[in-house]
User: What shape does this take?
Amino acid sequence: MPSEQIFVGLEIGTTKICVIVAESRADDQISILGVGETPSRGIRKGEIVDMATVTECVREAIVDAEEKTNVEIGNVWVAITGAHLRSFNNRGTHTLPAPRQIEQADLNMVQTNAKEIALPPPNIFLHTILQAYHLDGNRNVIDPLESEGMQLEADFHIVHGIKTRITNHLRCVEALNLEIEDVVLSSLASAQVVVTQHQKDIGVLVVDIGGGTTDYLIYHDGAVRHSGVLALGGDHITNDISVGLKLPIARAEMLKIQEGSATPPENSEGGVITLKNDPGFLGCDIDRRSLDTIIHCRVREIFELLRRDIENAGSDLLGLLGAGVMITGGCAKLRGIAGLASELLDQTVQVSTARNVGGALQTFENPQYSTAIGLTKYARLITKDTRPEGMLERIAQGFGGIFKRRSR
Amino acid sequence: MSAPVPRRLIIGVGNAGVTVLDLLAVGNPSMKGLMVVNNDSESLAASVVTDRIAVPEGDPGEGFVAIDGEFGGAVAGAATVVLCGGLGGETGSFLLPALAILAKSAGITVAACVGMPFSFEGRGKKEAATAALEKLYTVCDAVAVIENDRLSGGTPSTAAVGEAFELSDKTILASLLAIHRMLSTSGPVKITRSDLKHVLGVPGPITLFGSGSAEGSNRLHEALERSLRSPLLNAPGKTTPGSALAGASPVLLLLEGPPDLSFAEVQAAVGEIERIGGERCQIKTGVHADRPSGSPITISVVASSGGERPSDKPVAPRIAAAEVRPERQSAPLDEETAPTATPQTPKKTPQAPKTIPTIPQAKLDSAPPTSTTPRKTTGKQTQGTLDLDTQQRGRFDKSEPTIVAGEDLDIPTFMRKGIKLTPPQRS
Assistant: This one.
């Protein structure tokens, strides 16, 4: 099988490090060959705090994936998240001296102009995602190439983040002599597999609630309109349970997974949950209503903050969501989360897993793998261009032109 | 005196002041302009500070008169004097206001960093300290008050008494250094003396103060986190770092560090304080990037809450030392030059005998202040108790806080909302 048909997605998450090996099929679908996985250490809220430990964890996950798929991994697509990531929309304008046919260089120029904006000094551009072209006042031109015109404009959704934090993410991978094909915003990767093109057209909010962060992305008219990251996730729920019920973190995590529910405490079924004795742990009876209260409070807060962030972005984005909200990520499995989200966001809400993906069934039906699977889909979509040089070298060059390929 | 007087002096008064200055001198061996004044000869003899003024033991009033000339000569020619010490004891309570008046009358800008006694030290000390503090406010351009009882919020309940005092000394030292640097006129971005006066020059409000240092790749966030974790920046009843800054305005933010201290770091610090302080929070920023390369950065946050600002309501005329000794004017707060007067002992009026009758309002002619006059209070000046449970953040205890609208979101939501839970029943 030709190597360019194999795509490897690497998600360095707060809870787990996940490697998805997938192949591109002739029918334009992605087929998962296997998953490598290891619990994360050295990561908090999506950001690396212990480089050596994370590098070792990544190595374990890569080795695991290689053993399961019999594929030698040399190139990876890496997802990135973290509260340092920010986004905004901006319009680039390029006026020609006289009317003529629009060329690729003109498209490049309008994108460059859109990025002529002062970022905070430690930040660099991560994505410049095309929303729409406008040519001589003709709005929403799908492809202006070879059309005749004089004033070319384009709207972009721009994502940026702190350079050192992005670089640290990449160093953990490059330390293993893996070549990084590209770095992709986690929510952008997830969206590739959890929503359809039709949903992107009529408007959809993708919410990926992971261990350390909640990443979200809004599509409308087929383009990204807004994105953001909240530094809150499943780890906060686990921590709340641990603090509130005085349980070890591992016990709290197990309790969340097995018994957790985001439903309001007044709807709690009540009763007690008995935790049995274990070596080093004295068993106890947990009041279920208390557990439900803890989880409900935190999940409610996450969605309230999410709603506030989206409302602060303006443009009545919540009013554009014809397809409602799709929740994915590890926390999507929490009982009652869709109902609570629906109440707080005034939208129809579904828990979504990867779609239009073949291969290992159990993998793509689990929402916690959406980001890593989405990376491989993203890779297939944009991999027609020639392979870029190493990511760190490109960062050193100021990201000039790195992400131009991502504008589709 | 043959040696020129440094433009900025730091003077430790009483045993607490000597201790703080010793800490300062040991940590900054090359620092100039340090002086200690005390009537405890043993304390002075043990001090590492070489410029010392020994006050005769016995009645503090008489002791002061005995060193009046010596002190005047020592400070003459200085631009600023920062006094520090503890209030409540005989020495500090008497000498701090008295020396402040003396320095002020020489046209010097005077600031003070003082510690208020712990509750367990007794009511008498508290009252003496309150009376002395009132006098300091009438004289000084800025007074940073370290309330030791509020500090105990950061000290585990099992802490030894000695540790509590040590924490108090260290906090006074940190505030002293911050104010000393704020009074400095160097640096590309400055906090003016009028800013300092606006925040710390009016009696009434509670001083909010926090300071933290860090180095390494994440130095800004770590230093900021440490500074915000100061118990003096916690609102009563809240444990969210920096919660007392919500609504406080203006806030003085001082960043000190090596030359590579970047504008981005300054911007990030300002942004964080703005986020905590709220939309209306005005931040006055000072930057000193003159530390040696590789040094840690230090972030100091100073504000006050409660009370009334001069801009809110006219303040009653304060006792001006210049009125008493009209031959020399007090330095304007924003003036960057040292007083032009030649270094000499401030003149004493012929009537000045053994006490300080030249300042009748200050009533310093009596023995150590034991006034029971209640300190002017306003509605918000309550000294809240602090939650001593430091484990609220659980696994996030040592990570960068997630602060949104002044709330630390790493603290469990149900806790912040005050929801009671049924505790687990051990089987």
